[in-house]
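Subject: sequence -> structure tokens, single chain

Hey, anyone have a minute? Need the predicted structure for the following. Not urgent.
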Amino acid sequence: MDLGLFARVLWRFRIVSAVGLVLAITLAALSFVRVGSGGIAYRNKEQWVSYQTLLVTQRGFTEGRTDAVGADPNRLAMLAVLYSQFTTADSVVRAVWPHGLHGERLDAAPVLTLRGSSSASALPIISIAGFSDTPRRAQALTDRAARALATYVEQRQAANKIPDSKRVRLNTVATAANNAPKLWKGRSKALPLVIFLTVLIVTAGLAFVLENLRPMIRSVGEEAPRAADSVSGAS
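Reply:
Had a minute. Here:
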């Protein structure tokens, strides 16, 4: 590619090039933000995640005893796997989102002994992750989900008249309020970049089309006087 020729053509049609550059910047910016009566706002939202952990346990701090009492730890770990799926129960979803999801979502899973290992086993701890468009909403969502899950389990226990001494409890280990939310997904800049480059390519192409038309215009302009001389000589 002859960069010198490219630069000369763009400079020769600098008005077209300038208009194309301004148009590329404007269209790219408008694909990223919107301008309205309320001011300038982003078109795409960020996604933040907040975490809260719940311990699947029983009455009393049995984890602090040297002797094994109460429920089998393996059973509690199995219940952590089961209870993590209760976040999709209809009553839990209605409690978390009484007015609709609005782009939010939840993930819940038991904490593993060795993350990323094929031999990892589940611990009796549930990790709840709430995804929303701001850090504060992500924390509020995660907190609502943890409370809704605990309420769901308690209601099922009460409905089945399980004695208090034999009930599984969901105790909070780390609250969402004390866990700093993390940016999960930023605003995509792919579309503005594609629009910007496309308009620049079209502008450059237009400049070269105009450049290629210039020799034809000069050629027609030079042939006209010759034709006139020929006619005068014949007469």
